[in-house]
Amino acid sequence: MNVKTALILLLLALATIFALVCVLLTRGPAPSTCQHQPPEHEDPDDGRSLVFADLTPEELVQVVRYLQGSLGVPLVDASRAKPSDNCIASVDVQVPAKAEVLRFLDGGGARPAREALAVLYFGDQVDPNVTEYVVGPLPMPTYHRDVTVQKYGGKVPYHRRPVTGVEYKAIDALIQWELRKAPRFLAACCASDGTDLATLTTAPRGFKSGDRATWFVLFHGVAGTGYYVLPVGLEVLVEHGELDISLWYLRQVFYNGRYFSSTAELEDAFVANLLEVVRVEKPQEDTVMGSMRPRRPPGAPGPLQYEPQGPRYSIRDNRVTFQGWSIAFGMNPNTGPRLFDIRYRGERIIYELSLQEALALYGSNCPGGMSTRYLDGSFGIGRFAYELVRGVDCPYTATYVDRHYLAESDVPRTNQNSLCVFEHDTALPLRRHFSDMQSLYYGGLRKNALVIRAISTLINYDYVWDFVFYSNGAVEVRVHATGYISSSFLHGQGTDYGNKVGPHTLGTMHLHHIHYKVDLDIDGQLNSLESHDMGYELVRDPWSLQNTLERPFLRRERLERENEAAFPLNAPLPRYLSFAGPKPNRWGHSRSYRVQVVSFPGEHLPTSSPMERAISWGRYKLAVTRRKEEEPTSTSVYNQNDPWTPTVAFSDFINNETITNEDLVAWISVGFLHIPHAEDIPNTVTVGNSVGFFLRPYNYFDEDPSVDSPDSIYFSSVQEAEACGTNPLACLPAAACAPHLPPFRYGGFLNI
């Protein structure tokens, strides 16, 4: 290489380096990592919200130890207890009486004693029963008292107890034993020897009080997919009421429209060629209907929500604060999410907001489907709220919180990351206006909200429980249904009860009805219920008396008694129904919060049904009653297995008492009719399957409180909208940063 060539190459290299430097300089610096700023200052809680807190694992352990040493009877660990044993079924916090709590929170009174509610099954007694004890004080208990009669008016009969895991295992073993008596039938119908068939329980379990006989539906069990949509046509009725498991037996068998007294009789009919068999081949894992395995390779990542300066909410113990909101949160193992002492700008609006029950009522021409009325609280709405998947179940950067419970075991369990909290950008303005008249300006405010979420998996269905808090003082409560449909084997006139969704699968129609308790306290405990609606009045035009017009007018009414405030499920509600406090706002109107229900329910079970009283809360879209300490919940876990003599009947709460200037509770039912269709395979989507209600300020403030939001945007034609000092949105490019994303981890399968 000569000198001239070397110089030319050197000059080209220098030019290239110079060009790269110029490009880098014009691009600017790479985004820095987002720097978290502390959330806005909130009033210190001083740990007062812990009066509502769920029990810690340490407290649960101490309650178990105390009961084991203080009751004077042998207690078997519930994880292995037979029906004939005594065991601790569950332990939860005993929330103190409201008056006691308010004296502590508002009146400077003593902190209430921390106590637990323990449920025990006494099977090893002359008179087997379910007993509930209040145990305290925590963390080191020294006393217990039986509250069963006080709560329910008598002992809880033993047959009302929920079915335990030990019982389900014994039933599965019995079914497997019986299936061995029909080997040729199983080979012909299902390409199976029975060991690979999965069972699904139904409920309730009989036709009258004391019954404990359950239909179990059999499905092809394929690993990694929802077997609920793979029925084989076989269902069995198991008698399991005796305390001695060895006395349980298979009472009846159903197959393809016919009933048999045993699997042996079914086998005999098949061998004698007296049975029409529909062969259902065992599906292959890679082609099975209902599989949720991805069918395409991953694509580019979708949009990601993140907080440039970290979360603007704060969580301390069981309390979350956000832009004026303060909420104490928890999880009941049976009934699920519960919130207490909900305040906005320092004022309590809601004392308690809690889920009560979730009902799924099915129709079918198969015995299992037609008899199913699941009351999910008896299975454990909170207990089966498992770990949430970061980035799918909640935003990737949400805050995830563990929940602890003790049920069917002497050892506490933890559902890690099973509740999430996040600020949500709804991508919609909360309010806005573009002015093109008189003057030119734009004003707007993003509709950001705080969300508290949990998701329960209750056998086949998954329910997403949302509690949403907005900057205008409104609260939204909603539930989204997803998961798998339950199905029956398609035979005869099956499509009278649903749609065909697979070769032999009938997607059975069903109702989802959800019940909530809302204890509103507007300007204190003493509230009244007011309805505002519209009518038309025919009037002569004042400026043209020969003409008339129909003028809308406002119809105001105060509802005086509970019977007036019990609105049937499918009857129209007053368009504005409000809890009114004793004080007026600046404009002379009662400070109020409006209840607005968004629901599309099916028909309630006829009141002539012998089990209707157990779900009589479902008669009403909304019922307002006087709050009573002895009416803490609208139902009971014991209603599922004895709906014919319900332990708690909500209809008894409504007895026409006065509701003027009283401590009131709104009991709200939401739901929808689900007729499964082809698009419910592989499983149901949340789109369109969401219902709930709003609690909205109605003259509670003197103006919309969101005017004080730091997120407000305003600029006019005489201002430079692109200037950072005028418009905070213009500051975003300069504040751009790369979010710190925690590594993806999941341990939800470890605690099943």
UniProtKB/TrEMBL annotation:
Q: Please report a single Pfam family linked to this protein.
A: Cu_amine_oxidN3
> Could you tell me which residues belong to the region Disordered?
287-308
| A Gene Ontology term for the protein's cellular component | plasma membrane
Q: Name one GO biological process term.
A: amine metabolic process
Copper amine oxidase N2-terminal domain mapped to chain residues: 75-143
Q: What EC designation does it have? A: 1.4.3.-
Maturation and modification:
Topaquinone (TPQ) is generated by copper-dependent autoxidation of a specific tyrosyl residue.
Which InterPro entries does this entry report, sorted A to Z?
A: Cu_Am_ox_TPQ-bd, Cu_amine_oxidase, Cu_amine_oxidase_C, Cu_amine_oxidase_C_sf, Cu_amine_oxidase_N-reg, Cu_amine_oxidase_N2, Cu_amine_oxidase_N3
Q: Which residues form the signal peptide?
A: 1-19
The entry's family comment says: Belongs to the copper/topaquinone oxidase family.
Q: What name does this protein carry?
A: Amine oxidase
- Please tell me the species this chain comes from: Anseranas semipalmata
